[in-house]
Every structure is written in C-alpha cells, then in structure tokens.
Amino acid sequence: MFALLRLGSCFFAASMIFFGVQYVRYHALLGGLPPVPPWTPGGPAVAYATGVLLIFGGVCIAIRRKARVGAALIAGVFLFCVLFLYWPRLHEVLYDGVERTRFLEPLALGGAALALISLLSGDSGDPSGLRKPPDWLSRTGRWLFALPMIVFGWQHFEYARFIATLIPKWIPAHMFWVYFTAMAFIVAALAILTEKFGRLAATWLGIMFLLWTVLLHAPRVVALRGRDEWNSAFVALAMCGASFIVARTLPGKEST
Fold first, then answer.
1. Is residue 254 part of a domain?
2. Residue 124 has what pLDDT?
3. Is residue 27 part of a domain?
4. I need a labelling partner for 23 at 20 to 30 A (CA). Which of 39, 44, 171, 209 fits?
5. Is this structure's pTM higher than 0.85?
6. Phi/psi zone of residue 29: left (φ > 0), alpha (ψ -120 to 50 degrees), beta?
C-alpha cells in the first residue's frame, strides 16, 4: 500500500504538467481546467504564464530537482487564484455549483501542494533546503485539502440525479453509488481533519479518485476525445495524487 502512496507525487506532477501544457497549447483560460477561472482578465498572456509556471513546478517535482521549490510554486499559484480571483466573487461560489467546484478544486490541490513540501527532501547543494519544513505547513495543507471534500460530498446529495447520469450504464445501482460517494467524501474529510484513521481514509479516497480516472473518465476520453474530457480525467488524477500525498503526511499507526 505504501508503494501506491508513493505514486501520489508522480500523479500530481504529471497532472500539473498536463494543465500547464493545455494552457500553453490553447493560449486561453479554459473552463474546468484549474487553477485560473476562465473569466480572469489577461487572456492569452495569463494563460501562457500560468502554463509555464505549472510545467516548471511539475517537472521539478517529477525529477526531484528543486522539488520543494516546484511544490511551493504550484501551491502559490493555486492559492493565489483562490484568494485573489475566486474570493472576490464569493456570491457566485456560494450559489453556483460550477463556480463552487472551480473554487474548491484549486483550494484542495493547493493544500496538497503545501503538504507535499514536507515530504520532499531539500537539495544537497543548498544547506537551508535540508531543513525540515515546519509542521504547520503539512497540517494547513491537509485542512485545505479536506474541507473541500465535505462540500463535494454535500454536492453529491444536492446534484444526485445529474451525477448519476455520468456513471457508465454497465455499473448497476447508480443512485446508490452517488450517495455512497457522498458519504465517502464526508467521512474521509472528517478522518483527515481529526487524524483518526486519517491515513487509511485518505488512501481509500485516492483509490476512489483513481478508479474514477480509469472507469469513468478514460472511456469517455477514448469515446469522445474532447478537450474537456481530457481535462476532467487529469483533474481526477490530480485529486488522486493529492489524496495519496495527504495520506503520507498522516501517522501510519492509527490511534483509537
């Protein structure tokens, strides 16, 4: 199981590189592609700059060179968008399900990037890079990751009938799986926040996202081959990696 958790940073880095390539490739702010909302002013220039930063950060994490710098850069980009782009439009975030999801995904992924910093080794050429990051960094990252999961769970209850239409027809009992997923989000978030069976909960949350990537998104990518389908698949993979990252920052031996 620990070997699976170690894939978290790889999944996360690959997703960041993909996001960056999409921004650079299309020179546009794309809906459904975190972290920059599509209505942000600046258009192609902002898209290109965001893409370059995400590619650089993802590559640093993937090759383990200046990896902490890469994780910090990604955390900064995502949390900057949350604070300075989404927060001023809080009304839309509260009352529009699409905007709410676009707000919460960067918040969760930015939190995971913060937590990742504590798992990465400093660079040998930089003595200051060998210092262990403060504990509050990973704790804050876990909270920023876990709180959106509660809202995602609630949204599965709120939009249950629509979400059921996204489940492949060959899977039976669609409504059961929608409600099961809703409860899984909420229970996992509470376990992470309280650090009671948190590693186990975050691990299974990551497995759930990985199953979504393989069973739900991959077939749609093959069948539809649309840009939005690719984006959705890599968002799910990024959330999978983020879950595994958070799991690794939690104690392995659970308290009772």
1. no
2. 42
3. yes
4. 209
5. yes
6. beta
> In the predicted model, what is the mean pLDDT of residues 2-31?
92
Q: What is the pLDDT of residue 222?
A: 87
Residue 15 within any structural domain of the chain? yes
CA distance 193 to 86: 24
Angstrom distance (rounded) from CA 131 to CA 138: 14
**pLDDT per residue over 160-184, tens digit each?**
999 999 898 999 999 999 999 999 9
Residue 248: what pLDDT? 94
Question: Residue 203 CA to chain centroid, in angstroms?
Answer: 14
Structural domain for 107, as ranges: 2-248
Q: What are the tokens at 245? A: 């990252």
Domain total of the chain: 1
d(CA 166, CA 218): 13
pLDDT tens sequence across 111-125: 999 999 999 865 444
* Amino acid found at 188: A
The alpha helices in 88-226, defined as continuous H runs, are 90-95, 97-117, 135-158, 160-164, 174-194, 198-211, 218-224
Residue pointed to by tokens 């913060």: 114
- Enumerate helices (H) and strands (E) in the chain, giving the number of each: 12, 0
The full DSSP string for 58-69 is: HHHHHHTSSHHH
Q: Could you tell me if residue 255 is inside a domain?
A: no
| Amino acid residing at 105 | E
